[in-house]
Design a protein that fits this description.
With 127 residues, the protein is an alpha/beta fold. It has a single domain (3-111), classed as Transcription Regulator spoIIAA, CATH 3.30.750.24. The chain is 36% helix and 26% strand. It has helices at residues 26-39, 58-73, 85-94, 106-111; strands at 3-8, 13-21, 46-56, 78-81, 101-103. Helix 1 (26-39) packs parallel to helix 2 (58-73).
Amino acid sequence: MFSVDVRHDARAVVFALRGDLDFDSVVQLRDAAEKELAGGRQEGPVVVDCSALTFCDSSGIGALVQLYQRLSADGRVLRLASVPAATARLFAITGLNHLFTVYADTPQALAADAATAPIQPDEGLRT
């Protein structure tokens, strides 16, 4: 079972993903993003908390890329937090590790600014 919980932080919007992000569930992420971005805050970063993400297939990665593109078009940033090791490996294989900014956890992603560096591709990932 997959779910997306959306919460607002003073600095960002946080999408907390839980379960398997795959072909069958990706519509939930897209719907949550559409609802939030159409009617919610129009500035600041979006943090995707992956700490409870158990699986992510190519459909899920595609949805994250679409979210990145939509935010970029609006001058906003996407930050990923607590990315599981298997998903991080997919990012590295596909070169998406150069597209996504990944942080060890959500508090670091929320606190990030120009002086805060993201984690390295193999550093701080949960297994």
